[in-house]
């Protein structure tokens, strides 16, 4: 992976207005995070605030009413929100992963362009339906097939996980390209609310990420065939979705870990202040070493995500590079590293805060962080990703340079 000078990303970071808008949404997300988690409910207040601050359209090109925000700006907002409410942050991330499929691949298509303008103008919330009963997290295969009948397309899918499915304004859904297509010959289609029905099949009552409301549904849709994205899903998955998913998810997960370490740090500081008035005066609180270890791991995750952003910036205008094994291995590694490491970080924070971290309702509570963080390794199973990477490593030559 090449790591160019850090100023390369600066132009796409959320400065001034964008950062302030994200901070205002994060304040609302933090206010409702406990209730969202306890009740396992959709974080409506946060999503309303995202819409009010016009943050759902920022990735759309300016000529279509958006703000041209790149992955770095969006990942930074994911981290800001992740520190407040991981479910809200994940909803924001998933929406923008779907936006990236439109922005990167559908710009020559008149319907998709007008749809992007609607996303920006009406702040439409986009959902994703790739997971399918019988296939699980293997998003590069489908059982269901889209049926094209003249100008109309129809699709029925056993979509076992659709985050905020009932709340989305449109769902981008994968299927085989036609009834005789191979499982990996897939397309992605946009269905607008009103063009589909959702019959709930699985309830989302989970350990963490309870606010994403990722229920399972039998999806039945009918729409104009122009709503099928023109590029094969294989290209969309390799050239934008892989990077968008692994970078933006990692931004969210990094945010969860940051908040855990911030809580642990304030616990250690409070203990240090207390010890100044007791017999242990001058002694470091016992959690201080764990805090240093947690800060060290946090920096690793951050560096990894920032390096991935650089790798994407460098490759994004080169289809061959984006589709290369080297790029895929890099993106897979980012996902594996951040999803594994945040668990270690939050465990360290828990050791620091002790029972005050284990209990709910204290300023140092970490239960929600830990539960939310455990979704990261499953969100496309790390075993599946490692299997995919190991196949590529049979032929891909490792980059042996420090700077590429
Ligand atoms: C918070 C959250 C939100 C989500 N939102 C959405 C959404 O909006 N839309 C959507 O479509 N999906 C969504 N998902 C689904 C998700 O991205 C995965 O696709 C899904 O969780 C995978 O299901 P599974 O655990 O049954 O994994 P599977 O991939 O089916 O794997 C099941 C088990 O088999 C093992 N396994 C399977 N294949 C292999 C292999 N090749 N090599 C090694 N081991 C293997 C895995 O270790 C795993 O334990 C969401 C998931 C989470 C956690």
Automatic annotation (TrEMBL):
One of its GO terms (molecular function) is acyl-CoA dehydrogenase activity. It comes from the Bacteria. Residues 256-378 form the Acyl-CoA dehydrogenase/oxidase C-terminal domain. Keywords: FAD, Flavoprotein. InterPro entries: Acyl-CoA_Oxase/DH_mid-dom_sf, AcylCo_DH-like_C, AcylCo_DH/oxidase_C, AcylCoA_DH/ox_N, AcylCoA_DH/ox_N_sf, AcylCoA_DH/oxidase_NM_dom_sf. The keyword Hydrolase does not apply. Residues 29-119 form the Acyl-CoA dehydrogenase/oxidase N-terminal domain. Transmembrane segments: none annotated. Gene3D superfamilies: Acyl-CoA dehydrogenase/oxidase, N-terminal domain, Butyryl-CoA Dehydrogenase, subunit A, domain 2, Butyryl-CoA Dehydrogenase, subunit A, domain 3. Its cofactor is FAD. Pfam families: Acyl-CoA_dh_1, Acyl-CoA_dh_N. Coiled coil: none annotated. Belongs to the acyl-CoA dehydrogenase family. This is Acyl-CoA dehydrogenase. It comes from Agrobacterium vitis. The lineage of its organism: Bacteria, Pseudomonadati, Pseudomonadota, Alphaproteobacteria, Hyphomicrobiales.
